[in-house]
Amino acid sequence: xxxxxxxxxxxxxxxxxxxxxxxxxxxxxxxxxxxxxxxxxxxxxxxxxxxxxxxxxxxxxxxxxxxxxxxxxxxxxxxxxxxxxxxxxxxxxxxxxxxxxxxxxxxxxxxxxxxxxxxxxxxxxxxxxxxxxxxxxxxxxxxxxxxxxxxxxxxxxxxxxxxxxxxxxxxxxxxxxxxxxxxxxxxxxxxxxxxxxxxxxxxxxxxxxxxxxxxxxxxxxxxxxxxxxxxxxxxxxxxxxxxxxxxxxxxxxxxxxxxxxxxxxxxxxxxxxxx
Length: 275
Ligand SMILES: [Mn+2]
What we know:
Blueprint: E1 3-6, H1 13-23, E2 31-34, H2 45-54, E3 59-61, H3 65-74, H4 87-90, H5 95-103, E4 108-111, E5 114-117, H6 127-142, H7 146-151, H8 167-180, E6 183-184, E7 190-191, E8 206-207, E9 220-223, E10 232-233, E11 237-239, E12 249-255, E13 259-264
Parallel strand pairs: 1-2, 2-3, 5-9, 9-11
Antiparallel strand pairs: 1-12, 4-5, 6-7, 6-8, 10-11, 12-13
Helix pairs in contact: 6-8
C-alpha cells in the first residue's frame, strides 16, 4: 500500500488520469491525498469531481479556494469569473450530489503523522489547533446556516488572526489562512496580494512555512496553492503545486519514500515573472 499526494488539479483531468496510470494507483490498495483546488480554469472539473468522489475512502481531499468559489457561485452569491470553467459542473444532472460531497470536505487532514492543507497554516497554530479550527468551518458548512455563510466568506478582513475572533470573522480568517495564504508575519498577519515566489516577500512578511518557531515545524505538511514556487520540497513541507494549469507539470509524491512522479501539462506555458 502506498499513499500518493497530488498537487492542485484545477480541472486538469487528462493529466490526472495519466498520473494515476503512471504511478499504478490502485483504489483497493493505495490511498490518494489531493491538496485541494480540484476544479476550475482547466477543462475537466466535472469528471474530476465524479471520479474522486467515487473513490470514497481511498481519497482524502481538502478544500481549496477554487473549490469554495464553486460552492459560492452555486449558492448564487457570486457571479462566475470570465476565466472560470465551472459551467459543466453547474449544469450537471448530479450537481447536487457533487456539491454536497465537496462541501463536506475538511480544510485540514491529519493522518499517520502527515498534515494536509491547501494553502497554509499560521505560525501560532499547532496541528491540533489547525484540526480544531478546520472542524469549526466543517460544522458551519454542514449546518443549516451554510448557504448564508458562503455569502459571508469573501474578504481579506480580519487580516490578522487572533484566538478570540468570533463568528463569521473567525471562520473567514480560518478559511483565508487554510485556502489562500502565502505570506504572513510571525504574529499572524496575512497578505493576499503577492502571488509570486519567495523572493517577492513583502517587507516584514515571510512564506508561512518559513517562520522560526512555527508551531507545526515538527509536522510533515503537504500543501499546494502556490504555483509560482514550482515544486518546492523542504524537509517538512512539501508544496506540490507544480503549475499544471500554467503549462508546468502535475506532481504526485509517494509517501513515505517521497519518490516524485510527474506528467507534463497539456496546457501551453504561460510566462511568469522571475521567481
Ligand atoms: Mn489555490
